[in-house]
Each structure stands twice: as C-alpha cells, then as structure tokens.
Amino acid sequence: MANDLASNPWVFDTAAATILYQGDIEVRHMEFVDYGVQGSLCVVKDRYGKVVWKATGAADLEEVRSGPMGWIYGIAVTTPQNGGILRVYFV
Prior knowledge:
Layout (H helix, E strand, L loop, with lengths): L9 E3 L8 E13 L7 E5 L5 E6 L7 E2 L4 E8 L7 E6 L1
Antiparallel strand pairs: 1-7, 2-5, 2-6, 2-7, 3-4, 3-6
C-alpha cells in the first residue's frame, strides 16, 4: 500500500524524508495502528521540522490515539515502524 491522501482519514504507511503535505490542515486527531511490536515509533513533524506528535506502540498492540490536534502546518511522517500505519483525521 502507498500513502493515501485521497479521503478522510489520510493514511500514511511509508516514511518519507520529504514533506508529504505542504499546506495547512486542521487535524482532529491521529492514530498509530497495525504496528508489529511494543515500542514501535511514529513521529510526525510539520513543514518546519517541529515534532507535532510522537507515538510509541503499546504492549497490547492497540491503536495509539492523539488528543485533539488543531492546526498543523504541513505534514512529514518520518518514522512509522514495524509495519505501522498513521491515520490522520481532519476537519
């Protein structure tokens, strides 16, 4: 599967060194799912390189959910590990 920005939620399964979305977006929340092992990491940065959310896989391998996010200025997903998928729900 490839990163999918065609519908809500956006689905990112491939890390990228570049910014995947340049615009501003109002994000409701994010979820880190389908990772393989406890401690798997997912780091989301804005277009300026600031970390806006960092998730660590849980022992029971359940989804890890952010709280309400608000406006984010670009999205770069640098580290979905161990088969993990990041879902970004937006307004």
